[in-house]
Structure formats: C-alpha cells, structure tokens
Amino acid sequence: MMKIKNYTALLHRFYRNERGAYTVMMAIMSFGLLGIVALTVDGSGMLLDKARFSQGIEQAGLALMAENNYSRTNKEHEDVLRQTVTEDELGSKTKLEVQKEKRDQELIRGIVRHYYYPSTYFKDSKDIKDDYDSICGKLKGPNGEQLKSIACEISGKFERPSWLYLGKNNGLSFAETTTINANKIYVQKNLDEIIPIDLMLVTDLSGSMNSSVGGYSTAKISILRDVVSSIAEELLEQNNTEEGKIISKYNRIGFTSFAFGAQQQSNSAKCYLPYEIKPSITVRNNYYYDYYTTIRYSELLSYIGSSQQRYSYATLAQFFDLFVDYDKTIDSIDSFNGKDFNYLMTFNKNSWCLGSANTRINSTYIWAKKNESANLISRFNWVQATGATLSSSGLLIGANLLMNTNPDEEAQPSKLGVNTQRIILVLSDGADQINDTNSSLNITSNLINQGMCEKIKSKLDSLQDKTYLEQPTRIGFVAFGYGPSGTQKAAWEKCVGKYYYVANDKEELLKSFRKIIGLVEEVGHSIYQPPSYYSN
Q: Exposure of 122 by Cβ count < 10 A (0-12 exposed, 13-18 middle, 19+ buried)?
C-alpha cells in the first residue's frame, strides 16, 4: 500500500514540475519543423534550378545555332569528327550523321550543366542524369517554298537530388530525386547571304569634324572616311567566305551629310531644314518684358541664309526651337516618298551648313551598288566639313531617301524570299548646337521625344512585303569623340535602343558601324512559336 502511495506521489510531483516542458514540446515538434525546412529549402531550390535550367537551354540553343552542324558548309569539322560511334549507335544512319547528333548533345549538355550543376550537385559528383532533345531544319515559306533560314527546337530534363531528404514516403520532404523539365525553346537564324541591306549613312560634317579625337593627330573626318571606305568595300565588294557570312549582291549604300541642315538629292547648291515651320512667332522683348515682338520665319531665314554667322547664337537657338511645328513635322513623315520636298527653310550652302566650297559637290548621294564602292568612297571623300550641328535635319532627309526601293527585279522579295533590311546609321561628333560655347538646340530631342523615330520606322516598314519574314527598320547612333549627356543623350537612347554607341578612335568607330549594320555574324535569336520546317 505504501508503494502505491509513493508512485502516486511521484507522478503527482512530475505533473506539477514544469522544468523541461519546452524541451519535450520541441522534441515532439522538431521532426515536423525539420520537414517544413526541407520542403522550403528544396522547393525554392527547385524553382531556382528550373530557372537556371531553362536559361541554360536557351543559351545552348543559340550555341547550337551558331555552330550550325545541320547546314554549315564545313560539316566535317574537328568537334564533329572526334565523336566516337559504336555499331549499335549507327542503325540506319551514316557515321557522320551520328557524329553530328552526338556533337550537338555534347554542346547542349556542356552549356546547360554549367548553369545548374555547380549549385545543385555535390562537388565532383559525376552521377548526373539529364536528357535533351533537339531538332533542326530549314524553314518553309508561306507558299511552301524553302527559305534560306534555319531553326532549332530544344527541350530537356534532369533529375535533381533533394538537399534535405528525410526518407521514403514520410510526407515531410520531396522525393529523393525530382524531375526538372524545361519548356521547349525555339531559336532561328537568318542566313545573312540572302538579306539585302539598304544602308543610309547620316553623317555629321560640321566644322568640328576637322579636329582630332582621343589625343591623336588624325582629324575625325579622316577617320570617318577610312571607316566608310572599309564598310563600303565589305558591303559592296567583298564576298566574305567565312561560315554563314556571304554578303548579298543587292546591297546598297547612300549617304546624307548634315551640318546646320542637309542637302536633298537633286540640288547640290542648297541646304534644307526639313521641318514644318510656323509662319511667325511672338516673343517677349529681352529689354522691355511687357513688350512682345512678332517675328516671321522669313526674317530668321535671312539670317541663316547669310554667308556669315553674324546673328546672335543664343537668340537664333531660342527662336529656331520656337519656329518648328513639331506635330506637323512628325506627321509629314507619312508623306515620305523618296523625292525632294519643297521646304520653307531653304538656303545656299554657307558657313552654317556644309560651306560654299561644297556648292558643286553632292553632300547627299544615293545609291552605290555592287562593285561601286570606289565611286561611293570618292564622292564621300570630296565633301568638306563646315558648319554648325543639327542632326535631325540629316535624319529626316536620309529617311525620306531611304524610301527609294531597289528597282532591280531580281532584288524583290518575291525573287529572294526575304525582305530588304533598311538601316539608318547616324553619326554625330557633338550635341546639336550653333557653336561650342552656345546652349544646345532642342529640336532633335523634341522631335524624338514626340515620336519621330517610331514614325520613321513605321513608314519605312510599310515597304516590307508581309508575305515574307519582315526585317524591321533599324536606326543606330554613334557619338564620335564626345560623351553625350542630358536630354540629347536620353533622346537618342530612346530613338535607337540597343544600337547606341560611343567611339573615340578608328577601331571603336568601325566596330560600332559593323554592329549596327549587322556585319558581326548573328548567332541566332529566340522565337516564340514552333517553326514550320521545309520538307522535300
């Protein structure tokens, strides 16, 4: 009886004693908490790995397209030939076909693993289970014809090991391995030998182009001439035999030189300011602020048309910005037809614009075609650099001239199966202004911010034959020998997007030209719909 009382008292004391209560509770809860941690850690890890895996698949697709083992000229290159093939792998295929497939798998696996392997597997782990599918082929046109473009589609999956695996079927962690899938990726490459280029060089030939750049003694105008010469020879003369880079024989190049205005095609003696101009403006008097003055455009034109820059720079900049009707100027782009326009602001070439020495020299020229690079280079080299800077004058006139399509029947999309790529390349060596010490003109910035570039692209894109793959108009900008800033820099970046470059020497200038034009070989680009393959 005494023992029973002792046991009862012991149990009663245990029940009343709270020491260690939380330890017991935590011991009971710890397994569940560990399970929650396992689910959280592995769950987030899976999401990250899926993102990494998908990104790796996309990059592998671009690499696959760049190497192009499907349709490249030199199919038996070293990376293909070093692939070993067994009799079982041959089946009905040739050895070279299997070698190409194995090389593609090697290329894909090597790139994709680089994205997820270091973060997912233990160091030196070789037990990786991944699998990839890829299909490549030439594309089919809208009428069933074979296009000279190729596409690939790639998909894949891999087995991801759990970082915190708590045992089979316990419900508190993911499985020991989880299959991670990547959505199918589509990539396409347009073989650039079939894409004709119409290139309009809109180049700054203001007086500052006679100065040197980057501490060198060579004038900017001389460097520009060398670069234009290289580009002209590459586009018009050279059949580049590098893999995937055969230049179209239907390429054309033109140029529009600008200073404070630009020449149209037919009249070499005149400069034009291609803006819609208000007949008059009313401004506050600088000395008597309660007094307003009306100024007609003809008065401003008389100053700009003068042989000497004798008008107040600051006043001219202020007035000229006010005279431009920005909305009507942008709307006038819809009327572009490749022919000269009758602009109100027209004057003889002078110290404002390209100089009187260029009166008998065409500072605007279209078109140099195949085997005519020498003619283009000679014409461009004749133009002297003189005047102030107003880049939008050259852009508008150059864009209008770009509406002149190639009359050659063999150059039409219906013959080539592809549209012409139209490119405007604008080069300026300084902000729009009357002289170096004056405040900048805002005409170009205002036009860009109100939609000029979008309107130009839309108008030129209307020339595309929608039956075939469209080549959207490209505008590029190169700041040569200066660092743009403020509103003008922001405006040009808005206009051209990724085709914005700064160059300070010949090498950088040539590289930026080549990138804008696309002479750097395209490795391919992602597409968002399954490709339609051509079959015999």
A: exposed
Cis previous bond, 382, omega within 30: no
Indicate the pLDDT class of residue 281, thresholds 50, 70 and 90: confident
Identify the three-state secondary structure at position 181: strand
**Residue 317 reports pLDDT greater than 70:** no
Say if residue 40's pLDDT is above 70: no
CA distance linking residue 532 with residue 530, whole number of Å: 7
Question: Residue 166: which of 38, 30, 33, 26 has the closest Cα?
Answer: 38
pLDDT at 479 over 50: yes
Q: What is residue 14's predicted lDDT score, i.e. its pLDDT? A: 56
Residue pair 186/529 in contact (Cβ under 8 Å)? The answer is yes
The CA-atom distances, in angstroms, between 288 and each of 292, 296, 475 are 8, 20, 45
Mapping DSSP onto H, E and C, the string for 89-142 reads HHCCCCHHHHHHHHHHHHHHHHHHHHHHHHHHCCCCCCCCCEEEEEEEEEEECC
Backbone angles phi, psi at 281, to 5 degrees: -135, 155
pLDDT per residue as tens digits for the range 319-359? 788 899 999 999 999 999 999 999 999 999 998 899 988 88
d(CA 340, CA 274): 10
pLDDT of residue 244: 43
Query: Which residues lie across from 427 on neighbouring strands?
Result: 203, 478
* Per-residue pLDDT tens over the stretch 370-428: 999 999 999 999 999 999 899 999 999 999 999 999 999 999 998 888 899 999 999 99
* Residue that is written with structure tokens 């076909």 in the block: 97
The DSSP output letter for 186 is E
- Angle at which helices 506-517 and 220-236 cross, to 10°: 40
The pLDDT of residue 291 is 62
Among residues 352, 354, 261, 358, which one has the least CA distance to residue 309?
352
Tell which residue, 274, 332, 329, has the closest CA to residue 449: 329
CA distance 419 to 402: 14
pLDDT of residue 342: 94
Q: Residue 402's closest CA among 475, 496, 499?
A: 475
Contact (Cβ atoms closer than 8 angstroms) between residue 484 and residue 492: yes
pLDDT of residue 217: 80
HSE-CB at 406 with a 13 A cutoff on CA atoms is 27
CA-atom Rg of the chain in angstroms: 34
pLDDT at 56: 86
CB 455 within 8 A of CB 133: no
Tokens 């080539």 belong to which residue?
A: 416
**Phi-psi category of residue 495: left, alpha or beta, with phi > 0 → left and psi -120 to 50 → alpha:** alpha
